[in-house]
């Protein structure tokens, strides 16, 4: 179930009762599912190779102009990992931007050309998420430009990294028919091992509560050590690790089923 619907459920049931309709049954995957994305890929070769050795379909998000992006993205695809463009975007704190960034002061033409070049720089790219972007993701016009470029480059998905609560990126993706989801947990905002473990446990709790959840981490030694230790035990805990595209497909099917179950029948609408 999508986040937030749990609090709404009693109200919806009451409304359904008043309308004489049976309340919809929440549809969730039979097993809670998670996806994990490792950002900032391409900067260092050894850390990148360690990510590729992680068990299961851990997605790899590559900075477009990093030194080892082409090599590691090619290896990631061969290893069955999803390859994503980790697109640098303007932030509100004015931090230095990685090469290939899109900015608020770009013209539409410059923006489109930059995104196109970034996509071309990452072999086997299947989706995009934002690197930083606390400024740019709050601007609907620029997010529309991004979704239009994604449409031009074929079937792709978008993950909103949610670097600001004011983001409209996922909303614009949805409005333009781009398969999408958003990040629920940052695994390593703090690099203490106990904090990374706590965030991973939080990811699993969210998946059990809502059916699915997405985490973003980085190729830090502490993060990779935790994942090397914890990922093999997921199946025994009743959790499935899925590619991001597959998790998005399940979320969309659930949303469509939920919406259909709450759409009034023609007779009910006439009454």
Q: Could you please describe the fold and organization of this structure?
A:
The protein has helices at residues 5-18, 45-52, 69-78, 108-121, 140-152, 169-175, 193-210, 221-230, 244-262, 266-270, and strands spanning 33-41, 59-62, 83-89, 127-132, 157-160, 180-182, 185-186, 212-217, 240-241. It is globular. It has one domain (29-258): TIM Barrel (Alpha-Beta Barrel). The two termini are 30 Å apart. The protein has 271 residues and is an alpha/beta fold. Residues 1-27 and 266-271 have low confidence and may be disordered. Helix content is 44%, strand content 16%. Strand 2, helix 3 and strand 3 form a beta-alpha-beta unit. Strands 1, 2, 3, 4, 5, 6, 7, 8 and 9 form a nine-stranded parallel β-sheet that branches. It is built from ten helices and nine strands.
Could you say what the CATH topology is called? TIM Barrel
What is the name of the CATH class?
Answer: Alpha Beta
Number of domains: 1
CATH architecture: Alpha-Beta Barrel
Q: What can be said about the biggest beta sheet?
A: 9 strands, parallel
Category from helices, strands and their pairing: alpha/beta
The count of β-strands is 9
Unreliable parts: 1-27, 266-271
Portion in beta strands = 15-25%
Task: Give the overall form.
Answer: globular
Compressed to H and E, one letter per element, the order equals: HEHEHEHEHEHEEHEHEHH
Helix content: 40-55%
Cα-based radius of gyration, to the nearest Å:
20 Å
